[in-house]
Specification:
The complex is a heterodimer of chains A (116) and B (115).
Chain A lengths: L4 E3 L2 E4 L5 E6 L6 E8 L3 E9 L2 E5 L6 E5 L5 E5 L8 E8 L11 E2 L3 E5 L1
Parallel strand pairs in A: 2-11
Antiparallel strand pairs in A: 1-3, 3-8, 4-5, 4-9, 5-6, 7-8, 9-10, 9-11
Chain B lengths: L2 E4 L4 E4 L4 E3 L1 E4 L5 E7 L5 E7 L5 E4 L2 E4 L9 E3 L8 E10 L5 E5 L3 E6 L1
Parallel strand pairs in B: 2-12
Antiparallel strand pairs in B: 1-4, 3-9, 5-6, 5-10, 7-8, 8-9, 10-11, 10-12
Classes of the chains: A mainly beta (116), B mainly beta (115).
């Protein structure tokens, strides 16, 4: 089975621009979560989608948004980029739905975003 | 809120040495506990997990036991190899009211194993 794929792998943007990152989960996985990884703050949860609905959101400003499509693929968008948004953005998929016990998450390789 | 504290790194060991990376957690309920590993330039890989008290997770020679009384989940390996060099993250997962699970991570411990 193919793993979680993320595109692009690397991205350089300018302050004020917006960016869209893409994630394809493992086949059959309906839950997709996004995390931001920075040296200072570590790994922080952004949001989770299940069946095209956002089920949970972390403590990030409204500039960070996402969506999920009917095939479970997900995108996240960051508008009005700031220097502090430079990070590795990780997507994770999970085979579990609501109320089905522990939720193992399988991570993609990440998208390295650099804001200049 | 939930939190995970793991020992500060970096940790440098000689090949075949014994490894312990300490991890303690704070949670309101009964979380599942995980260790993830991140190799340079890659995403996170699930190393092992435990879902309830006294469970022992194990994989590739690594072990960790869910200790509810001490709220700990320390990672151990009897004999490390150079290929174990990576960053190790302890994490917990708790279900939210919406049926969602989110991972709360520790800061990570960088392990370097020298021949």
């Amino acid at each position: 089975k193919a793993g979680v794929t993320q595109t692009p792998r690397y991205l350089i943007k300018t302050r004020g621009q917006q960016v869209t990152l893409s994630c394809s989960p493992i086949s059959g996985h309906r839950s997709v979560s996004w995390y931001q990884q920075t040296p200072g703050q570590g790994l922080q949860f952004l949001f989770e989608y299940f069946s095209e609905t956002q089920r949970n959101k972390g403590n990030f400003p409204g500039r960070f948004s996402g969506r999920q499509f009917s095939n479970s693929r997900s995108e996240m968008n960051v508008s009005t980029l700031e220097l502090g948004d430079s990070a590795l953005y990780l997507c994770a998929s999970s085979p579990r739905g609501a109320g089905q016990g522990i939720d193992e998450q399988y991570f993609g390789p990440g998208t390295r975003l650099t804001v200049t | 809120g939930d939190s995970v504290t793991q020992m500060e790194g970096p940790v440098t060991l000689s090949e075949e040495a014994f490894l312990t990376i300490n991890c303690t957690y704070t949670a309101t309920g009964y979380p599942s506990l995980f260790w993830y590993v991140q190799y340079p330039g890659e995403g996170l890989q699930l190393l092992l997990k435990a879902t309830k008290a006294d469970d022992k997770g194990s994989n590739k020679g690594f072990e960790a036991t869910y200790r509810k009384e001490t709220t700990s989940f320390h990672l151990e390996k009897g004999s490390v190899q150079v290929s174990d060099s990576a960053v190790y993250f302890c994490a917990l997962s708790e279900r939210s009211g919406a049926g969602s699970y989110q991972l709360t991570f520790g800061k990570g411990t960088k392990l370097s194993v020298i021949p």
